[in-house]
Amino acid sequence: MAHLASPAGADFASGDAAYRRGDFEAAFREMLPLAEKGDVRARHNLGVMYEKGQGVRQDHREAAKWYRLAAEQGFTPAQSNLGTLYAGGQGLPQNFAEAAGWYRQAALRGDGGAAYNLGLLHVAGNGVTRDYAEAQMWFRQAAEQGHVGAQTELGKLCEQGAASLEAARWYRLAADGGDAEAQYRLGFLYDNGLGVPLDYGEAFGWYRRAALQGHTVAQYYLATLYANGQGTPQDLKEALRWFSAVARQGDVAAQYRVGLMYGNGEGVSGEDFEESAKWFRLAAEQGYAAAQYNLGLQYARGEGVLRDPVQALFWFSLAADQGDPEAQENKARLTKKMNARQITAAKRLLADRQPSKKQPE
């Protein structure tokens, strides 16, 4: 993120003071003549103001111009900010190789944000060779400066390299800094005893912190701990609340779990097959085999939906095609009870659907 350079000089200080009190137009008037005379700090700060639209109409092209002038004078923050404009294609054509070049110059001068961004480029292979060792080096540089995002990314690379103990250390630093992804990942390590002792209480605490920040996967795992009574007393109402929050975001596994809970009367006053069928259908339409099977059962039994053997066979068939053994068994059993017209109708539905064979992760 772009930030103003710190003041250092009487001519510069008045413009900086105006900026800090929120008088951006006055700050711009003070900075412009200094920048035109070659003051590197003023040039960088004009770039910031153009980028953010402070005291002047937002103009990324002008921001890039001033950042470049300062960057070519060796001003580290401007080099990093110019790299970010290149990476985002703001004010100039997107060019990851150019972004990497400017990030590298800034990172070599100790800029933690630039080192972090350069690491991300190496992970993705954007503008540079995909190189996890190189990425790890840059993430470590930034992480040791306290860059929370870099601490999280370094933890991920350590975890991928089976260095769970070191991963936990970096995740904890980032998690203590409020990073939701790190909080979730630290919770996952405790949940599975990876690099740390198995501790559902710790897992619950970290999942909850991430979940309260809106981290979807953490919300799902938090719901699971509530449902299982792990790390916290079992609370099916809370489990349903968190599963529902994730399900509303389109997560098929959560939609399936919500369907199960309504169908079993868990976390609610009693069984609610209509609500159960609604959630099973949402997951089933996305190709989730277990939901397809359960929706088939509801059609076969007339639970929450009108009894319909054609629909039951349709959903059993979709789940069976994905290898669900119970669906395969129920499909065979139901087919024996159906007449030729019903079987033909189900086959027609299957032909019209052309479902994805890929099971959602």
Q: Keywords for this structure?
A:
Sel1_AlgK, elongated, 71% helix, disordered C terminus, 361 residues, Sel1-like, Serine Threonine Protein Phosphatase 5, Tetratricopeptide repeat, mainly alpha, TPR-like_helical_dom_sf, single chain
Descriptive overview:
With 361 residues, the protein is mainly α. The protein has a domain at 250-352: Alpha Horseshoe (Serine Threonine Protein Phosphatase 5, Tetratricopeptide repeat). It has 20 helices and no strands. It has helices at 10-20, 24-36, 40-52, 60-72, 76-88, 96-108, 112-124, 132-143, 148-160, 164-176, 180-192, 200-212, 216-228, 236-247, 252-264, 273-285, 289-301, 309-321, 325-337, 340-353. Pfam families: Sel1. This is Sel1 repeat family protein. InterPro entries: Sel1-like, Sel1_AlgK, TPR-like_helical_dom_sf.
